[in-house]
Amino acid sequence: MSATDPTPTPPTDTAAGFSRWSLVTVAAAVVAVVLAVPLVAMGIDALGEDRPRAAEGQVFDPPRGDDPLRETETVFLPWDRLSVAVSGPRSELPTIGDAPSDVAPPDGGSFVRVEVGSTSEAEVPFVGVRDAADTQAEVVLVADGEEYPVDGATGLHLDSEEGGVTDDPETRWVAVAGEPTDISVDVVVDGQVQTVDGDGGVNRRRAQDLTEVPSAEEVGDSSSTECGTTRRADESSVRLQEMPTCEVTASLRTPFVAGLGWAPRGREYLAVEVQHSDLLPEGPEGILGWQTTSEFDGRLDGRRPTERQTTEPRPAPAHVSGTRVRPQLVFEVPADEPTDDLTLRVAADAVPDDPFTDSTRLRFAWTIPGSDLA
User: Looking at residue 2, what is its pLDDT?
Assistant: First the structure.
């Protein structure tokens, strides 16, 4: 090599393998992975998250303070009207004052807000034929096809006895997997589903028929109907002080009756509330001396009622004031067709105080034109 040759460049190991910097980088990555394994095993994220993580499906009831959601839709329950809304995914639960939430989202997951409030401007005429109608509504969040019930100890409770929500919206946060883009809320009553979409749309399905039900005030304000001429339908010789009278105090068509459920498609229920006067048979020489026990029944164009209610009505729940419709007779009828004539009957067992006088069966009937009913 001559003196004029440039100083030779030191050989590199690039061709033979990684550079020294590459080796340092790989070593650092290996150390990070090795250290992350025991951290995850201890429940502490490698990225420094030391809060407990929510489980997917867990429901949280944070203190109120968030502004109500704007995109709401009305869901019709047989006993109430609800305002329902749902938000997009969020990485954190709301703060309490300046303090962040002490619960982190599921690993890779997020939180979705569900809001439900009562929007009834008038009382709903809820029809039941049982002493205790335990009808309930389920609220289910659906996020990217996964269902998350919004119930449990911290969830929403909607039933006909307690109501469950007030005019102030109730908010719940649900921990979900990932960051879903397809979000909706299902409200289910007796197997029938209403869906509120995240973009504000609503599909009420069978419950759409509830929009046609008048308010309790409208039903109560409708004039009562006298049953008309009383017909005696027995051959007993027992005389009465006066013939009994009858009055239809309310009638209502509705697609749902607690205790019976939803009417079949194309059908609905006719609920009729009736009051009749007491029977006062006369004893010997006009002296009252009879005890009577009456039974009420009816026929709609010759058809028996689907259900009769003869027990005392149960109290209205706390969120409902005033008189609620309490039918005594419920018939299944074709929807959107005129109501047939209704025949009402009272049968009474009259038992005399005189042990030497036989008891007897008294029967009375009335016919109410279908045009006088709902």
Answer: 44
